[in-house]
Amino acid sequence: MKWMITADSSCDLRNLETGSADIAYETVPFVLTLDDTHYRDTVDLDIPSFVEHMERSRTSHSACPSPGDWAEVFEKAENTIAFTISGNLSGSHNSAVSAMRMVQEDHPGKKISVVDSLSTGPKLVVMVNKALEMIQKGESLERVTEACEQIAHSMRTIFTLCSFHNLAQNGRIGKLASYIAVHLGIRVIGEGSREGKIQMRDKARGDGKTLRRVLEIMEQEGYNGSSVYVSHCLNEGLAEQFRRMILQKWNMAKVEIFQTRGLDSYYAENKGLIVVY
Q1: What 3-state class would DSSP assign to 91?
Q2: Which of the ends of the chain has fewer CB neighbours closer than 10 A, N or C?
Q3: What is the dotted CATH code of the domain comprising 3-30+65-154?
């Protein structure tokens, strides 16, 4: 095989039609543990059942792919480009880099590139699609990597969640934000920093006010009708409402909506939205 496009399962794109037998797409799963049950975050993971179990579980945690998991995929093609969740949120990036070095030591002719998305979910979808577009045009791995790194640094991430329990439990945010969301009925609005860390931005009560505030923040950061990518955790209605709000003001905007996979469902929790623009 000539090309492999791969990502860890923080990427909410389950399948990709490459149009060529020389180009493949695979994701490398996280493992999510709820009480004593281990879930591999594969494309066929039943998200509603997983979220239902998550909401009644007493303990939980996530584990990133091992170098061996990544290496299995890296060995399949002559050229591989891999995308990971932000290295400041998970060890997946370091694991992929370790695998790249292992595989290239054993197979010096293989070309592998690992790109830190500085985000999660929808941004990896954008990068995977960009990689495919460029590969289909005959671009080199170096050029594809450069373009995808530009996406990582230029596109912004904003999210709004009803619960921050898992983010707080795993040390991704402070416990105060989690308390506000759960006990005061307020949706907390967060964003990804330029370094790929999570920071709190605002809060709002009610879905309508929350979406209006998210759009206000996007405009303050320079949004003017460009493409928007939204992942939702079992909240397609709210995602569609947000799409309509965008199109009412920018009727030529492109808004794509995805259902979160396991990892993003674990951290976004039920009804959460992740927006990349």
Answers
A1: coil
A2: N
A3: 3.40.50.10440
